[in-house]
Amino acid sequence: MCANYRPIAPHRAYLLHFPEPKDLFFKDDLYPLSDGPLIFAGTQGVEWRSVKFGMIPPWAKDLKIGRRTYNARTETVHEKPSFRHAWYHSQFALIPVETIYEPRYIEGKAQRWGVYRQDGLPFTVAAIYENAIIQGEQICSMSMLTINSAQHSLMKQFHKPGEEKRSIVVIPEQDREEWLHCHFDEAAHFFRNFNPQEFTCSHMPR
């Protein structure tokens, strides 16, 4: 799972080879219900948008649910009430990220560790997104898709001992356009662990 990440810095957007975002500014440290950048396939091509981190489904009465829906398990995303509308409408997107933060337990105590590319480049995380009207205001929101990482040499180091190991899904550059335009029947093709040799981690206390 990932509940905390550092989004791409706007001036580094060109490194993803997408059009640069216009008038979008974000905090360096995002948590559920924070506003963060999202890349999706719009009617005029690839677009950037500011969205809530944590899925707000169309039937929600308020934003509180976003504190529980920031990750969507790929194994059950199609059946969960919060996610299935976005899933069956193939509302797939990319979250541009510099670093994700995970808890690593050292001598029984959780430490905040950052996971990032060894070459220092930003990367893109698979997401689903949704639009809802909450108290008369249009809210666009997203959730990171996650997969089991029990066999992943890097990601299996995080979370509490005994808990299932989960990882984000990294969409590499060559697959980004295809992911943004894929149908939900094709999505499972993208659900694979990223190459651990391309990433590293370090202790990053708050």
Q: If you had to describe this structure to a student in words, what would you say it looks like?
A:
The structure is a single chain. The chain is mainly beta and about 210 residues long. It contains 2 helices and 10 strands, in the order ββββαβββββαβ. Strands 2-3-8-7-5 form a 5-stranded mixed barrel. Strand 2 and strand 3 (about 45-55) form a beta hairpin. The two termini are about 20 Å apart.
Keywords:
single chain; 206 residues; mainly beta; five-stranded mixed barrel; 2 helices; globular
Biggest sheet architecture = 5 strands, mixed, barrel
**Order of helix and strand elements from N to C terminus:** EEEEHEEEEEHE
Give the uncertain stretches in residue-range form: none
Mean pLDDT: 95
| Rough outline | globular
Number of strands: 10
The termini sit apart by 19 Å
What portion of residues belong to β-strands? 35-45%
Spatially, the strands of the biggest sheet line up as: 2-3-8-7-5
Name the helicity range.
under 10%
By DSSP (H or I, 4+ residues per run), the number of helices equals 2
Gyration radius over CA: 16 Å
Structural class based on helices, strands and sheet pairing: mainly beta
Summarize the structure.
By secondary structure, the protein is mainly beta. The chain is 5% helix and 38% strand.
